């Protein structure tokens, strides 16, 4: 199960102010600290904002990798296999045990 990340938590956890870079977004993370699951989908205000958003999402993934580095090896591996995908102004960060399915769904939804 995942929970929504909202408000100031978004800036604190993802290292960017969503008001500056995105028009909309969904930020979800594992409800409990025994899973590395993370799913973020955002729509950029402009493609020029991609680098700033990618940097924040990468830092978030690195935080998760670090948090699982000393326990739950399977979740640490899942975190290390995070993916950041982009299609135009849409950007996805995912940490999941089924990255291929998430990638396929992301790509299919934007056709």
What does this structure look like?
The chain has one domain (2-109). Helix content is 43%, strand content 27%. It is built from five helices and five strands. β4 and β5 form a beta hairpin. α3 runs antiparallel to α4 (73-80). The chain is globular. The mean pLDDT is 97. This is DUF4358 domain-containing protein.
Global structural class: alpha+beta
Largest sheet: 5 strands, antiparallel
Provide the gyration radius in Å.
13 Å
The number of distinct β-strands equals: 5
**DSSP summary: helix tally:** 5
Distance between the termini: 28 Å
- Specify the overall morphology: globular
Strand content: 25-35%
- Unreliable runs: none
How many domains would you count in the coordinates?
A: 1
What proportion of the residues is helical, as a percent range? 40-55%
Q: Strands of the biggest beta sheet: in what spatial order?
A: 1-2-3-5-4
Q: Mean pLDDT, rounded to whole units?
A: 97
Order of helices and strands: EHHEEHHEEH
Protein name: DUF4358 domain-containing protein
Pfam families: DUF4358
Structure keywords:
single chain, 111 residues, alpha+beta, 5-stranded antiparallel sheet, 5 strands, 43% helix, 27% strand
Please provide a brief summary of the model.
This protein has 111 residues and is an alpha+beta fold. The chain has helices spanning 8-14, 18-21, 50-67, 73-80, 99-109; strands at residues 2-4, 22-30, 38-44, 83-87, 90-95. The protein has one domain.
Write the layout of secondary structure elements.
Elements: E1 2-4, H1 8-14, H2 18-21, E2 22-30, E3 38-44, H3 50-67, H4 73-80, E4 83-87, E5 90-95, H5 99-109
Antiparallel strand pairs: 1-2, 2-3, 3-5, 4-5
Helix pairs in contact: 3-4
Pfam families: DUF4358
Protein name: DUF4358 domain-containing protein
InterPro entries: DUF4358
């Amino acid at each position: 199960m995942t929970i929504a990340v909202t408000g100031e938590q978004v800036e604190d956890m993802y290292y960017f102010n969503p008001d500056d870079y995105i028009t909309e977004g969904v930020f979800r993370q594992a409800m409990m600290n025994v899973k590395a699951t993370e799913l973020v989908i955002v729509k950029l205000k402009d493609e020029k904002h991609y680098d700033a958003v990618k940097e924040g999402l990468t830092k978030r993934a690195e935080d998760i990798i670090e948090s699982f580095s000393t326990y739950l090896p399977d979740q640490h591996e899942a975190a290390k296999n995070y993916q950041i995908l982009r299609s135009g102004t849409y950007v996805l960060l995912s940490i999941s045990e089924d990255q291929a399915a998430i990638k396929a769904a992301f790509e299919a939804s934007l056709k």
